């Protein structure tokens, strides 16, 4: 009997796996790359971790393989553990083309299974959950990585799973500390801003449970469990928040791109493709909100709250919010948002889930018949296939491999050579031929009006032509010939705890000069010069890093103990 009951589940998961492959077919058949605006940045991040794994040279902070081997810090501030996972995918792939197929396929599957898992936990019919899982794959929340290598798509892929703890919080007013702590930690390890939005989604449900509790004891219990969830989160993410705290306390780091025109990057602005991918998404949103209003008096409190939260995130993604004025305030928290269309990701998840929960209220009516769900999935999937096919046609017909943008450096005049590099087994080749100056997180030593992108391009990318870089004994090493005992600038970035050893002599801060973005100038000698670059993290960080890794490894044991405790106290 159990095997019979498992057949629908196996079929449903099989459909999600099959659709993940189907969405890849245009790129498999067309044998082309999709090189979006963030491809250089993330390919460098993952090449860095892949080489560290391959060669066994683990350097948590400095970039010793990627980012022009500049010694800059990126991954430590941007999902370090997940970067190593992506690096493993790069290592398993023979070329960037194979990596893109592998990562895209995993993203499709993860997002589909994630939405399917959330909807099944909400007791949504398995076939409807499957259909909505496929539909979610087609939304721009997921396509953002496929088309532009926007990394928030990986956060969007696991967001539905991370919302499962909200079910108990909303329906039973119970907070499950293990589930909440792990959910927020997982998202924090992948994409920090996505985890912030997840917490914002939890807040109204927690407040409802807290103020709607039965008494002081219930409130005390809720606060105690919240403390447990926060403690678990801090343990599972100590490597990130402690690393961030140390770096920002001892360095003035250049913030990532600050968007002073946020009003453009909304779903009602120039980023309307978030709203129209798939093209039937506006209809889905309209059906949800209109359907909710029609049966509003019949809805349970948690369903009403879900609607309000979805509406708030939806509005935040539009120009109904005065983003022009907010962007002019130069506020750190507002600058963190960068692109208001990010708020459309949680809105999309909640709208899809809410629409499925709304279906029983309209049972027997025309719009909830399976034929319309099938049509929705077929049309949305077809749009994804057409869009990817068009990109493959562009790859073959357009002579240029990439669209030239500001601060772009091409190492070849041959488009064919650049295209071929993404199919080469030497993955460093593509990174050398197509470079962009993105100075995120470099240290700032002087407040000047100098363009930091231009400075990085001149001092690091162009400066690499003057030295030979390699990794020796796990440390970044620079070699060059000095014609005279003069001061020369070397393409290395110096942070508070960067260690420099020139010709076997340790350099102090007084022995070097630093540019606006921390590029080192030192006194060479005549003849051969060797500079060794390392990073001496504070003693407490190493302990925190090992503790965090141990916590993740022991997590299954902790979960088993928590499950046994729950069963015992039933």
What structural category do the secondary elements indicate?
alpha+beta
Could you tell me how far the N terminus lies from the C terminus, measured between alpha carbons in angstroms?
A: 27 Å
Detail the poorly predicted runs: none
The helix content, as a percent range, equals 55-70%
Largest sheet, in brief, is:
5 strands, antiparallel
Rg computed from alpha carbons, rounded to a whole number of angstroms: 25 Å
| Shape field | globular
Strand line-up in the sheet with most strands: 3-4-10-6-7
Mean pLDDT: 92
Fraction in beta strands: 5-15%
The tally of helices reads 25
Number of strand segments: 10
Descriptive overview:
The chain has helices at 2-22, 25-30, 39-55, 80-92, 96-121, 126-138, 140-148, 152-162, 165-171, 177-190, 192-211, 216-236, 238-250, 273-276, 281-294, 301-316, 323-327, 332-337, 344-358, 370-397, 415-421, 428-433, 452-461, 539-553, 555-568; strands at 408-410, 434-436, 468-472, 475-482, 487-493, 498-502, 505-506, 513-514, 519-523, 527-535. With 570 residues, it is of the alpha+beta class. Among the domains are: 163-253 and 538-570, no CATH class; 457-537, Immunoglobulin-like, CATH 2.60.40. The chain has a five-stranded antiparallel beta sheet with strand order 3-4-10-6-7, with no helix packed on it. Strands 5-9-8 form a three-stranded antiparallel beta sheet.
